[in-house]
Amino acid sequence: MRETLAAVPGETPAAYRPAADGGGAEAGGTARSAVEEKTGRRRNLSYPPAPQPLPVPVLDNHTHLDFRDGLVEVAVRDALDAAEAVGVRGAVQVGCDLESSRFTVAALEAEPRLLGAVAIHPNDAPPLAAAGTLDAALAEIEELAAHPRVRAIGETGLDYFRTHGPGLKDQEYSFRRHIDIAKRLDLALQIHDRDAHDDVVRILAAEGAPPKVVFHCFSGGPELARICNEHGWYMSFAGTATFKNSSGLREALALADPRLVMVETDAPFLTPHPYRGRPNASYMVPYTVRAIAGFLGKDLAQLCQEVARNTESVYGQW
């Protein structure tokens, strides 16, 4: 058994622990993440302990294995070994610009536990449009999406938190183009929706949504959950569902059709309670799944079976 598979509940997986004699960032101490540099806030950059394994394996609907956070850089294989050891048997690796989408396709070639999604993130559309390169970027995304293990276009959508003013029209143009690519290639659509619920729904209706739509890191309340139920759109819940200030998310979760519920990390972001603010990884999925089972009063094994089945109904077999 590989060392990274020997996950011990309550201990950080071996691949996520700084080397005792590595020096520099891998030795701990002075490294600061990009998030910390931007905000000026000190963070605990150590990875959390491994959870108890799930009784039935599930899949991480959305992760970014190429994004580094914390004190160590973890290889794709080691990250998936650590996840598999606690009952997360695979993941959807998501590209959100050309570089990360290329990484995604390369990772799919090397790792059978991954399926992929590729796209231009909504917040990247305006600068690309300003540079006159958005259409070329979208053309490359379509080429990358032809890989047989790319099963979704995403993350795409609208983000009104970080983009304002003239850039919004570029976001909408990009979103519409991604919808078209997903439909022509018969792929699922992974949506990034931040503070833009009404317009996301409006554009999906206007363009005609693909048969399989997933609201990644679902952030709406009961009304959006009802709309998703009505249209058969999937809702993927991340660590945010465990946060103390997320009562609206839990109300939505209570209303969501169980056949449309999925789980994700959005790693390395959105680490579930009680480790909020620390680096996230796919091995953390069980914390969110257990919290959801508790909110819903549902048997844990039953919930695991449901979310695994739902995930494969969108992307197919791993």
UniProtKB/TrEMBL annotation:
SUPFAM superfamilies: Metallo-dependent hydrolases. A divalent metal cation 2 binds at residues 192, 216. It holds the Pfam family TatD_DNase. GO terms for molecular function: hydrolase activity, acting on ester bonds; metal ion binding. Keywords: Hydrolase, Metal-binding. Residues 1-57 are annotated as: Disordered. A divalent metal cation 1 binds at residues 62, 64, 155, 266. The keyword Phosphoprotein does not apply. InterPro entries: Metal_Hydrolase (IPR032466), TatD-like (IPR001130). GO terms for cellular component: cytosol. Gene3D superfamilies: Metal-dependent hydrolases (3.20.20.140). The keyword Metal-binding applies. This is TatD family hydrolase. It comes from Arthrobacter mobilis. The lineage of its organism: Bacteria, Bacillati, Actinomycetota, Actinomycetes, Micrococcales.
